[in-house]
């Protein structure tokens, strides 16, 4: 790629030239080979070398560290996990207590990220302002109230998730049609590319080696075949998320679904006084088709969401990073939510693939017979989950019987996606159904029947 700084706002404002590190120079023998220099691979390398500085760890990256979703996401370091506690508790060998431990581990992982930022002097604009989710229709308000009621039934307190009235939500941000909102403190805003690049430098300082511009063309027990040679390792860790389908034999493991993002110019202080979001909470609303926003440290609004199509055969291409119709929809949606932005200039637009397993269940694991480990399938909730994955993989590789390796997502194996053209038809039908469901609710004022029908395909109940 001619200039990695053109990938996104985050890459353009990272104060890093993204000069590629050297490629793998020859065949190599290491203790652990990690495929992918995104958050999963980098966190795994960090905790491995922190726990045992003598380990020989190699991270193999086709582009540069932070190239993919880790450098392009919406910047939510949240405690969101793509699978509900009810579904987690129903997994084989799981329980209600295990599901709650998974949620607690996710929340603790936000603090674990902050500890590393302090220890390694990584400035990534980390600010723990929580998340506000506005309810803008009666159906959304009912969904918000049910979400809070369910969380409290699982043992959460008001301090974990609470329902805001319309006047209370107006104190957070000026969303004219908001009937209320939910608020959780369990989220921090970050600049993702700054985190990825800082973490890569910290990994190198602790003795791991990152080989960039090196494509992986095959994985086998104790072996990684690349475009520049063979890496032999006791453990091979796949940390490829939305790019997994490029590896032979893994085309149906996760579906690469694109999420797109737009960003405004830096806004003036008087305009921010009109908008609100004074404590920089991340924000969304209770619609079915996912959207996400944040107030950046330099005073912009970054806003993204789903809506781009899934591409036949799990294809991934730079050509898919831009969908002008989706960008226009995002700009329109944002100005509907925050009308004060109607006359501002949008300066950046970008996108990229994220990984979605067939059952919408993220997982981390290690096959002790083959030495092959993996983590991923975050469904867009990966900024914090990758930290938990990295710590868990470090414990699994070291054979430490920690609380992390007993969480319900460990060693879960999702079934494969359907072959084409069923995969293409099903995924795109699901994505379109969520847009239709939101329009249905806006028109009828009632919960969408389409959303209920499509929920099983999209990981719901």
Summary?
The chain has helices spanning 9-12, 39-51, 69-72, 85-89, 96-120, 138-153, 166-172, 192-205, 269-275, 324-337, 382-398, 422-444, 449-454, and strands spanning 28-35, 57-60, 76-78, 131-135, 162-165, 180-184, 187-189, 209-211, 216-220, 223-226, 229-238, 255-264, 282-285, 291-295, 301-305, 346-356, 363-367, 372-376.
Structure commentary:
The chain has 461 residues and is of the alpha/beta class. It is built from 13 helices and 18 strands. The strands form 4 sheets. Strands 1, 2, 8, 9, 10, 11, 17 and 18 form an 8-stranded mixed β-sheet that branches. Strands 5-6-4-13 form a 4-stranded mixed β-sheet. The radius of gyration is 21 Å and the shape is globular.
Whole-number average pLDDT? 95
Calculate Rg over CA atoms: 21 Å
| Beginning-to-end CA distance, first to last residue | 42 Å
Structural class assignment: alpha/beta
Give the overall shape, derived from the CA principal axes.
globular
| Low-pLDDT segments, ≥5 res | none
Strand content: 15-25%
Q: Work out the helicity level.
A: 25-40%
Q: How many H/I helices?
A: 13
Number of DSSP strands?
A: 18
- Describe the sheet with the most strands: 8 strands, mixed
Question: Keyphrases for this structure?
Answer:
eight-stranded mixed β-sheet; globular; 13 helices; alpha/beta; 461 residues; four-stranded mixed β-sheet
């Amino acid at each position: 790629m001619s200039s990695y700084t053109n990938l996104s706002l985050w890459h353009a404002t990272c104060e890093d030239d993204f000069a590629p590190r050297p490629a793998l120079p020859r065949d190599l023998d290491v203790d652990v080979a990690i495929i992918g220099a995104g958050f999963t691979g980098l966190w795994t390398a960090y905790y491995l070398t922190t726990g045992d500085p003598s380990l020989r760890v190699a991270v193999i990256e086709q582009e540069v560290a932070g190239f993919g979703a880790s450098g392009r996401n919406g910047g939510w370091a949240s405690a969101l996990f793509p699978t509900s506690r009810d579904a987690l508790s129903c997994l084989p060998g799981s329980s209600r207590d295990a599901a709650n431990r998974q949620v607690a581990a996710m929340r603790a992982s936000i603090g674990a990220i902050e500890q590393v930022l302090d220890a390694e002097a990584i400035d990534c604009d980390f600010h723990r302002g929580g998340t506000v989710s506005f309810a803008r229709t009666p159906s959304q308000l009912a969904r918000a109230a049910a979400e809070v009621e369910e969380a409290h039934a699982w043992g959460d307190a008001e301090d974990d998730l609470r329902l805001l009235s319309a006047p209370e939500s107006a104190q957070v941000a000026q969303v004219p049609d908001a009937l209320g909102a939910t608020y959780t403190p369990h989220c921090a805003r970050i600049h993702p590319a700054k985190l990825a690049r800082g973490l890569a430098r910290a990994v190198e300082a602790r003795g791991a080696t990152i080989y960039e511009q090196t494509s992986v063309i095959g994985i086998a027990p104790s072996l990684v075949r690349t475009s520049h040679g063979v890496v032999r390792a006791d453990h091979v860790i796949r940390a490829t998320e939305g790019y997994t389908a490029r590896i032979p034999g893994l085309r149906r493991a996760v579906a690469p679904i694109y999420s797109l993002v737009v960003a405004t110019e830096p806004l003036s202080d008087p305009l921010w006084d009109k908008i609100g979001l004074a404590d920089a909470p991340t924000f969304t609303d209770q619609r079915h088709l996912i959207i996400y926003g944040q107030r950046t440290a330099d005073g912009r609004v970054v806003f993204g969401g789903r809506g781009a199509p899934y591409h036949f055969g799990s294809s991934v291409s730079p050509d898919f990073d831009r969908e002008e119709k989706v960008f226009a929809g995002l700009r329109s949606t944002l100005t509907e939510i925050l009308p004060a932005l109607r006359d501002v200039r949008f300066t950046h637009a970008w996108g990229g693939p994220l990984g979605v397993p067939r059952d919408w269940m993220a997982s981390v694991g290690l096959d002790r017979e083959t030495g092959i480990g993996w983590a991923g399938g975050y469904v867009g909730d990966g900024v914090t989950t990758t930290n938990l994955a990295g710590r868990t993989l470090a414990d699994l590789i070291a054979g430490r019987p920690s609380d992390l390796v007993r969480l319900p997502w460990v060693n879960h194996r999702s079934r494969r996606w359907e072959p084409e053209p069923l995969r293409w038809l099903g995924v795109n039908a699901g994505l379109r159904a969520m847009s239709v469901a939101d329009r249905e609710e806006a028109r009828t004022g009632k919960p969408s029947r389409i959303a209920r029908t499509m929920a099983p395909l999209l990981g719901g109940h």
